[in-house]
């Protein structure tokens, strides 16, 4: 009986060890020069400055130009449809669309497939200016080229301009940050950020939970889920207290009509700050088959923004 008991304890120890230490799934990136993948993207912007619900639909091709150390790839748009360019038919949005459909972008990735930097930014900037000047000449309007030059003057560098105009590029390669993957990972930590709403000199510290799960499938793929989320009850508590304190400083009495209406808005508002990712990788070469990314930041009573990216390999 003692032998059996010891054996049972030993097996339990092995099981606990396996759960505790054998949790990472490695999936090396094995791309070759000439590899090409085509993706469809559906992007949803909910909230924001306009408070609307807008969709964008694009498709693009990724081609490997150089492999190791790291990778050099070409990102080429095949289709491009946005609310501004295809519904409002905004002149400047349409000009950007035409530029992106005609000029491929070259990107540098690290050995994991994560975005490193834009290649040839100075040359691309000159191409963009020349394209806008040419199109402005045809339309006999300098409105768009003037806006572009003003945008350039506000940005630190051209890479920042590209990130603002087409944020999906960096967000797509964010999927590779999930590799290697933890089969079942959980961590309670603290998010530290500046309170830009109530007091920009104040630092907020709120509880945050991080979790990741991963599993191999029978279809020769790896599925990974990731969530980083600030505690909504704690954020709600901090936000409510700070909001009411600001109202008190403004002299808004608790019983008056304005304050009552604001209190009703505050009661139903839930501040959020989170990032969620779900990816499916091809185990034969480490490429992305499917990647969904949701980032949410709602930190003002007037609202905030949720941005959804849905990438699917054709």
Folded structure, characterized:
The strands form 2 sheets. The chain has an 11-stranded antiparallel β-sheet. The protein starts with a helix and ends with a strand. A hairpin with a 4-residue loop joins strand 2 and strand 3. 35% of the residues lie in helices and 41% in strands. Helix 4 packs antiparallel against helix 5. The protein contains 9 helices and 13 strands. It is an alpha+beta fold and 314 residues long.
Topology:
Blueprint (H helix, E strand, L loop, with lengths): L1 H20 L2 E2 L10 E12 L4 E16 L3 E11 L1 H4 L4 H12 L2 E5 L5 E5 L1 H19 L3 H12 L3 H8 L2 H6 L7 E2 L1 E12 L3 E18 L4 E10 L1 H18 L7 H12 L3 E11 L5 E13 L2 E11 L1
Write a brief structural summary:
By secondary structure, the protein is of the alpha+beta class. 35% of the residues lie in helices and 41% in strands.
The structural class is alpha+beta
Report the span from N to C terminus.
60 Å
Using only CA atoms, what is the Rg? 24 Å
Largest beta sheet: strand ordering: 6-5-4-3-2-13-12-11-10-9-8
The shape is: globular
For the structure shown, list the relevant keywords.
41% strand; 9 helices; single chain; disordered N terminus; alpha+beta; globular; 314 residues; two-stranded antiparallel ribbon
